[in-house]
Amino acid sequence: MTNPFFLNSGPYNIDKLLKLSSIKNPENLSDILISDVKDLITASANDITFYHSKKYQASASKTKASFCLTTDSLKNHLPMNCKKIIVNNVLVATASITKIFYPDSINDDFDNSVKEISKTMFKNIVKYGHNVLIGDNVVIGNNCKIGHNSIIEKNVNIGDNCSIGSNVIIRNSLIKSNVHILDGCIIGKKGFGFFPNEINNIRYPHIGIVIIEDNCEIGSCTTIDRGSMSNTIIGKNTFLDNQIHIAHNNKIGSNCIIAGQVGFAGSSTIGKNVIIGGQAGISGHLKIGDYVQIAGGSGVIKDVPSKSKIIGYPAKNLKEFIKKNK
After folding, report:
1. Which of 96, 97, 131, 229 fits a 20 to 30 Å CA distance from 256?
2. Are 2 and 209 in contact (CB under 8 A)?
3. Domain 12-105 in CATH: superfamily?
């Protein structure tokens, strides 16, 4: 399950699901139950998925989903056993269906379940500062510390030997052991996912979570958005400097070092042992290989092979950059 915290209201009969989503059903699909909405890779039989860009053709050709929201121009990339539901805007249709399965995933209002830590079971387990609040469905391991004015909102699991700084807000997150989260971080809130509309912008549900693996450090005032359809993941022993933004669905590998003010757009995959200099920008839906070095201030707008060294905007091979700028 992508998110162990949001309650799935399904299953739904496919005909009812399409009607509730205002999606046409020209084939009169009616008597099949749909259990969940998932991405192309994680979807299984009795799930519905979506395919909106040729960039994901390889995943589309292997999906195990029973149904797929897609366009007429992309439908032939899907396997025969996956029924194609043709829509004008795949992402808007997917958002509508996701809202039905997960109606609580749109809003990120403050958590009114929180209590002062002194009134919870953690008062004798955690070392804490002043004005610390804890929400429902929170687990905290041994030998953890939480600084002043921090809020661990509902749906958080924290491992052993973790240090949470002051003025931190965490929700919808799985944090493994030996993780240090410095002051002012916001982790697990919904991402910047919406469809512009002149009358009323349409918010995209975020049903993923944030996963921070063992031995990571998250610098002060860093924001890590939870995933929309998949999860946002920070790999083991990765260190983030201050004021970094990691948007929804990014997957950062192990042993990475990322300097201050780096920004990641959504849904990129970063390999292991990657070093990124300060104020670099990583565009969305990219794949950056292992052992890559990205110079500070670079703008990365296309995939980067493993063991590359890149610099500039748009970022290019270091040797090519030096040769051109002698």
Report:
1. 229
2. yes
3. MurE/MurF, N-terminal domain (3.40.1390.10)
Structure tokens at 326: 């002698």
Burial (CB < 10 A; 0-12, 13-18, 19+), residue 121, is: exposed
52 catalytically annotated:
no
pLDDT greater than 90 at residue 285:
yes
278: closest CA among 256, 263, 300? 263
Residue 58 — pLDDT band, cuts 50, 70, 90? Answer: very high
Out of 77, 148, 248, 285, the active site residue is 248
Q: Cα(first)–Cα(last) distance of the chain, in Å?
A: 53
CA distances from 194 to 3, 154, 162, 205, 272 (A): 20, 24, 34, 9, 30
Q: Domain limits of the chain?
A: 12-105, 115-324
Of residues 91, 113, 110, 112, the one with CA closest to residue 205: 91
Burial class (CB in 10 A: 0-12, 13-18, 19+), 113: middle
CA–CA dist 118, 124 (Å, integer): 8
Nearest residue to 182 via CA among 220, 144, 143, 222: 220
203-235 pLDDT, tens digit each: 889 999 999 999 999 999 999 999 988 899 999
CA nearest to 224, candidates 172, 288, 180:
172
CA atoms within 13 A on the CB side of 96: 16
Q: What fold characterizes domain 115-324?
A: UDP N-Acetylglucosamine Acyltransferase; domain 1 (2.160.10)
64 closest CA partner among 93, 35, 90 = 35
Tell me how far apart the alpha carbons of residues 276 and 136 are, in angstroms, rounded to a whole number: 37
Q: Alpha-carbon distance 325 to 318, whole Å?
A: 10
